[in-house]
Hints:
The protein is α+β, with helices and mostly antiparallel strands. The protein is 31% helix and 20% strand. The protein has one domain (12-136).
Amino acid sequence: MGARAARFGFRPLRRFARVLHGKLTADTLRQQRRAFRARGGTSEETVGRGFEPAFQDTDTGLTYPSRYPDGRRAPVHLLDGLPDRLVEERDSAGNVTCVKRSVVAGFSRAGRFYTRAETARLMEKDRQHTEEWDRAGGAARRPDAGE
């Protein structure tokens, strides 16, 4: 484990390395979701924290919010809303089955893209900070703690 990983308390998911760095398909998105469940790297866990599901083309650095095929923003990662230039394969019904290898799933917040692993680390730091705050009696003074 590298120094940065140790500092954030993050253990690499070696068994999912192929899934995280291979071609992106609906199956790999499901596998990533399972790999990051309860680690802070899924759409469900980031709701209300300012993160939105997104994709980044690492060849260009462009980030694309996850969208339904009709263009509406999606609350989870969907391949069907990505631009045609990123799509490598479609099924007979026209659904996206595979995108360029350079496309990675992650989240955007405040104009910045975060990979699932980066998001998980941020969520863990936030959780630890909240626990420390609560242990110090901060919950009673927090504005959102109620009156």
